[in-house]
Amino acid sequence: MGNDRIWLNYGVDTNNKLVAIEDVASGKTDLICPYCGKALIAKKGRIKEHHFAHSGETCNLIIKREPRDIPRLPLYDAFNIFLTGKELEQLKKLWHRHKAHDHGIDRLEILPAFTRENLVEQSQNVNAGTGRKAYQFSKLGQIPVGALLLAAFNCVQEPLIEQKLAHLEASIFDNSGSVLPLEELRVRLMDLRICYTQYKFSCSRGCLKNYKLE
After folding, report:
1. Pairing of the two strands 39-43 and 105-106
2. What's the pLDDT band for 112 if we cut at 50, 70, 90?
């Protein structure tokens, strides 16, 4: 069995239509990989996120993808925040330690990943204990700790979705403004198609409001 990354959530049917993992039964399918055209198996267990796996050797286009290059929109149940397991646990501890207080978070408690991912921001206050400038959780930072209300989440999500899609659209060109070579172009166009399909899929299930995207 191929050592697939669990991000492959869409396969392609005989009509060249993208089919979501949620719409197929577990086990062998008639779907193929959007990138290499090989047969897929639906992996729908109780522990790992549901995903498609190659029935044979996994293609390099799946294995070698960097996390930030994966075609996935920032949705409520699969938001694109890149933390290690240890960093996420530290973020949760930080939230529980400070959520009931207004004295602010001291900078020495902030991991580099928290500022890199824009999970914290400087507050207007100083830390009551140290007298230094304090930090607070941003709206984005409240998402992985389950503290952001859905209405507030939508306000955070809309510009990030537009940013993701704009980035994918721009990625079909190289630095000189020319269209990428055919093979690479096919990959980037599939990335864009998968993200637009995710968008429509989430709207149809009420997980995402219908934004007007250019």
Report:
1. unpaired
2. very high
What pLDDT digit, counting tens, does each position of 39-60 carry?
Answer: 999 998 887 788 999 998 889 8
Q: What is the structure's pLDDT at 43? A: 92
DSSP assignment of 137-195, as one string?
Answer: E-HHHHTTTT-S-HHHHHHHHHHHHHHHHHHHHHTTB-TTSPBPPHHHHHHHHHHHHHH
Rg (CA), the chain: 20
> CB-based contacts of 210: which residues, under 8 Å, 6+ apart?
203
Please state, as a whole number, how many other Cβ atoms lie within 10 Å of the Cβ of residue 138.
Answer: 17
Residues 6+ apart with CB under 8 A from 136: 104, 105, 120, 121, 122, 123
Among residues 31, 32, 80, 82, which one has the least CA distance to residue 59?
32
Q: Is the pTM of this model over 0.70?
A: no
CA–CA separation, 139 vs 136, rounded Å?
Answer: 10
Q: Roughly what angle, to the nearest 10 degrees, separates helices 182-204 and 150-170?
A: 160
* Contact call for residues 57 and 110 (beta carbons, < 8 A): no
Every domain of the chain and the residues it spans: 1-65, 85-142, 148-214
- DSSP lists the bridge partners of residue 11 as 19
